[in-house]
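RECORD TYPE: inverse folding
INPUT: structure tokens
STRUCTURE:
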């Protein structure tokens, strides 16, 4: 019998597959397979199988063991006094065979090694332990096996390149580099494979992409071997064409970069001490101190402090890179630069882990729950402007006992578990030091490295050594200041840079005596770099400071002063001067941004020019234009791309809305927020949208038309949130304005919102009348999208009235319209409506098919709101099929997207569905508690979105009160309202997972 875990779990007996369908039994077998030959105690199985074990967990495990033993050969699964042992042969488990083949390959000759590696890699069928990717017990083995696989793939590619099989490895290397974007070894192999295939331009593109990934993700430049390979490709060096040895352990090692002296220098170049792996310079003493400190289990939080520019971020990145293999779940870094409020830290961390942050109040809880079982290093970079949020770290460390936090901040966080380490400047050579001592100083090594990026071929000679040493000393060894200075060697010699720097540094050193000297030196470096710009570059630099979270050249052209010529040339100049940096490419265009310290300097310069108000207004108007463009695109076939584009610009949009609210043009802010209504809904930000809009509407300023647009979008958000009173209030306020202005589209939209919510919550006749009026207006406006929407919502209201045939035809009409328009979200939502009609007809098979298709569409769009309702529809289908266990599991799943979408109605509906399952199993007290909790989540709001309105006889509070008696019902109702969401859901999961006998 063969067991396979290098992919989904499989058991094969001869040629027949042995099936174990129950999820918990499969997990139990996986745990035993990972400890083959060892005895696994029963309590360990319980801990791994359940986060909160049921009371009867021991007996359940014994049952699982018995079930698994039935499909295994006699004597394979043994029960011992201390636990259970799975006894396998040496070839029975594919993971064991894989590791044995790797060991054989390491001992083999190169020609045999490649064949053994192919055999080993041929055992893989997908991701390791694919079925258990989210299970804590599997994480250490998944990480270990995946790392072994990556190493084997890398080595096999090296051997193929050495043997001249570059065409064979191209496809596999492209995929590997895409998955491991910062792995320089793989990237070097791909560059060499492209070059040998006659595609040098592609090889250079791979280098550029890698440099961007390293800078953005790790804050470091490519290593010297990779840069040497790039230079060799540019020169078409003969050494690239044929491998110099059969082994060729690293493609980049076949490339040697000859020393190039400046033609003006007659003195042989000095060899500065350089790192052998990457361009991270110095910090040996700090790393030797920090590595054991961070790996000490008694250390939970380390904060790197020091003034701006000392290299805290790069030191943290290098430290995390070195210690990451010691953490089974790895290291994850969160850049807090763009986080403007302390309350948003948890959301930013959730995003870094791929968790979609939901309601701001839930993000910290979701993050703590996610980290609670992980052995994780979390790097929080640039914490200094968010110090009030420091208590959040204490909460995370308390909830996640194996979490370690590494923070960078200009000031300590002042929490109990903190270990503060001050990061000093880089060592600089003493005046009069010998040239070789100067060349070995870390600050000088950094200067030379960055100077070569600006002017290839730059070398440190004896005549220039003293000058560069003095320059680094005058910059106090601050890495940012050194890099800014080195960026100018393409225009000036080191002596010219020093002479221009001297007077400015001395002036600032005496002008602000209250600041530490290192702060004054950094300010001098930034101001000096600014002074070297021409007038056009200075103007653009100052005005670009209004952007938060980066910008594209296209957007910047709408903001900076007219008459600046080709902005792309100025941006290139600012990039070369290290005053801008690449900020990723989430859309079609690359984005750029400023370091926050530099941005502060630029804003101060902008204020000094008296241009702040004009540029901020231009910035707000640019993002109103973007929002106007997005409004239509977010309802069409390109909506996924536009959702991502708007997401990338969200920091700028927030800045624009804040400016419009406090100092700018309220009309601009209202129009911007109103046009983005579809983005707010799909990406679960309706709470944020309402805050912005209601703050602007609270002001008496703003035109009548702009205020009406804002009120309509508040109604759109309220519609999602189930706040029917707000829907009616805001539509009543804006509808007369839209009618008076002839805005038929907006008038129809408002009527559709009121009609749908009114019809679904009980007043079917009035709701139908309003929707039909909206449909006529949509036809008059010739708006196919709005017409399809009205038909779909008419179908939902007809379903609530029990007219299922009419409802199905209307929803199918709306669905056809949504498909023709390419609106993914509309298609998904109307599929959910059709699934509900199938529920009403008792056709669980058709309902399930509709809900599953809807969920595919909603997940493609990352629409948590629609995903939550699709999952709850599937739960209802399970209830109809008499599968309460599956229903509970689906309802629990739906809570995650419901929270991300900030949908209180969806959360309340989940609790009511759990109450329905509880009541069907005779657990009246639990049902009452769940109903009480639902009333607290969404108080006074009719469940007009609830799936229960379409054919599922859900529990009602009145019926439950009669069945239990008023006093008993009220007691448990109140208990449910007093219990936290996490506790009441955990209780329901625990009780409903175990069958109960008796009434």
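DESIGNED SEQUENCE:
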């Amino acid at each position: 019998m063969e067991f396979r875990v290098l992919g989904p779990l499989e058991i094969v007996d001869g040629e027949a597959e042995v099936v174990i369908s129950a999820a918990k039994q499969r997990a139990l077998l996986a745990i035993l397979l990972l400890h083959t030959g060892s005895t696994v105690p029963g309590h360990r199985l319980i801990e791994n199988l359940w986060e909160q074990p049921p009371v009867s967990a021991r007996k359940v495990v014994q049952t699982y063991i018995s079930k698994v033993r039935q499909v295994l050969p006699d004597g394979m699964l043994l029960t011992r006094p201390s636990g259970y042992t799975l006894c396998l042969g040496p070839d029975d488990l594919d993971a064991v065979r894989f590791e044995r083949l790797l060991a054989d390959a390491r001992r083999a000759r190169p020609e045999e090694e490649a064949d053994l590696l192919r055999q080993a890699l041929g055992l893989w069928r997908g991701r390791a332990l694919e079925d258990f990717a989210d299970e804590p017990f599997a994480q250490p083995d998944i990480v270990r096996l995946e790392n072994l696989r990556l190493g084997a793939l890398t080595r096999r590619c090296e051997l193929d390149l050495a043997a001249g099989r570059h065409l064979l490895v191209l496809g596999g290397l492209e995929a590997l580099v895409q998955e491991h974007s910062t792995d320089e070894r793989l990237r070097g192999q791909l560059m060499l494979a492209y070059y040998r295939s006659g595609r040098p331009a592609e090889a250079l593109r791979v280098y550029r992409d890698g440099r961007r990934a390293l800078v953005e993700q790790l804050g470091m430049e490519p290593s010297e071997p990779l840069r040497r390979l790039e230079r060799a490709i540019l020169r078409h060096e003969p050494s690239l064409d044929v491998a110099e040895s059969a082994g060729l352990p690293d493609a980049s090692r076949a490339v040697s970069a000859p020393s190039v002296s400046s033609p003006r220098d007659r003195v042989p170049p000095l060899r500065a001490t350089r790192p052998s792996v990457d361009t991270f310079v110095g910090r040996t003493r700090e790393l030797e101190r920090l590595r054991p400190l961070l790996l000490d289990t008694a250390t939970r939080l380390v904060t790197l402090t020091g003034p701006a520019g000392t290299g805290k971020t790069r030191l943290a990145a290098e430290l995390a890179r070195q210690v990451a293999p010691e953490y089974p779940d790895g290291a994850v870094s969160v850049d807090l630069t763009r986080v403007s409020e302390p309350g948003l830290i948890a959301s930013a961390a959730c995003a870094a882990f791929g968790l979609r942050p939901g309601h701001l109040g839930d993000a910290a809880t979701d993050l703590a729950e996610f980290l609670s079982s992980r052995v994780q290093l979390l790097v929080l970079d640039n914490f200094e402007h968010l110090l009030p949020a420091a208590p959040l770290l204490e909460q995370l460390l308390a909830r996640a006992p194996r979490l370690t936090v590494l923070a960078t901040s200009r000031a300590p966080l002042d929490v109990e578990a903190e270990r503060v380490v001050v990061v000093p400047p880089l060592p600089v050579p003493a005046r009069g030091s010998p040239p070789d001592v100067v060349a070995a100083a870390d600050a000088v090594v950094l200067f030379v490295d960055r100077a070569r990026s600006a002017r290839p071929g730059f070398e440190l000679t004896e005549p220039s050594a003293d000058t560069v040493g003095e320059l680094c000393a005058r910059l106090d060894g601050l890495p940012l200041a050194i890099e800014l200075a080195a960026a100018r060697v393409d225009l000036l010699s080191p002596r010219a840079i020093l002479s221009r720097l001297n007077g400015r540094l001395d002036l600032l050193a005496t002008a602000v005596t209250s600041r530490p000297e290192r702060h004054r030196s950094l300010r001098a470096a930034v101001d000096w770099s600014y002074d070297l710009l021409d007038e056009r570059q200075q103007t653009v630099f100052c005005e670009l400071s209004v952007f938060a979270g980066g910008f594209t050249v296209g957007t910047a052209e709408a903001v900076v002063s007219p008459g600046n010529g080709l902005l792309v040339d100025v941006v290139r100049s600012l990039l070369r001067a290290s005053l801008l940096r690449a900020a990723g490419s989430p859309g079609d265009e690359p984005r750029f941004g400023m370091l926050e310290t530099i941005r502060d300097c630029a804003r101060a310069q902008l204020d000094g020019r008296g241009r702040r108000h004009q540029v901020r207004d231009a910035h707000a108007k640019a993002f109103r234009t973007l929002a106007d463009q997005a409004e239509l695109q977010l309802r069409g076939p390109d909506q996924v791309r536009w959702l991502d584009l708007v997401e990338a610009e969200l920091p700028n949009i927030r800045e624009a809305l804040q400016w419009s609210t406090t100092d700018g043009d309220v009309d601009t802010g209202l129009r911007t927020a109103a046009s983005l209504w579809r983005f707010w809904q799909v990406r679960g930000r309706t709470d944020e949208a309402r805050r912005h809009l209601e703050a602007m509407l609270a002001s008496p300023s703003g035109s009548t038309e702009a205020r009406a647009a804002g009120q309509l979008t508040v109604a759109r958000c309220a519609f999602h949130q189930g706040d029917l009173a707000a829907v009616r209030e805001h539509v009543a306020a804006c509808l007369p304005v839209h009618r008076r202005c002839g805005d038929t589209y907006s008038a129809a939209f408002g009527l559709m919102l009121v009609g749908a919510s009114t019809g679904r919550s009980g007043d079917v006749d009035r709701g139908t009348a309003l929707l039909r009026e909206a449909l006529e207006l949509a036809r008059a406006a010739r708006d196919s999208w709005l017409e399809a929407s009205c038909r779909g919502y008419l179908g939902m209201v007809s379903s609530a009235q029990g007219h299922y045939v009419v409802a199905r035809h209307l929803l199918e009409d709306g669905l056809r319209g949504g498909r023709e328009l390419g609106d993914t979200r509309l298609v998904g939502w109307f599929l959910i409506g059709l699934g509900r009609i199938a529920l009403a007809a008792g056709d669980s098979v058709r309902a399930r098919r509709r809900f599953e298709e809807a969920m595919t569409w909603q997940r493609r769009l990352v629409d948590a709101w629609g995903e939550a309702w699709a999952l709850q529809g599937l739960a209802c289908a399970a209830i109809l099929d008499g599968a309460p266990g599956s229903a509970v599991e689906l309802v629990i799943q739906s809570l995650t997207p419901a929270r991300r979408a900030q949908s209180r109605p969806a959360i309340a509906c989940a609790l009511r569905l759990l109450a329905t399952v509880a009541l069907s199993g005779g657990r009246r007290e639990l049902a009452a508690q769940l109903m009480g909790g639902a009333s607290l989540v969404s108080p006074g709001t009719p469940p007009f979105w609830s799936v229960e309105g379409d054919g599922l006889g859900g529990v009602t509070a009145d019926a439950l009160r009669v069945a239990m008696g008023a006093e008993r019902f009220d007691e448990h109702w109140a208990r449910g309202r007093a219990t936290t969401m996490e506790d009441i859901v955990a209780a329901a999961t625990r009780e409903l997972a175990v069958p109960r006998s008796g009434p």
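NOTES: The longest strand covers residues 376-381.
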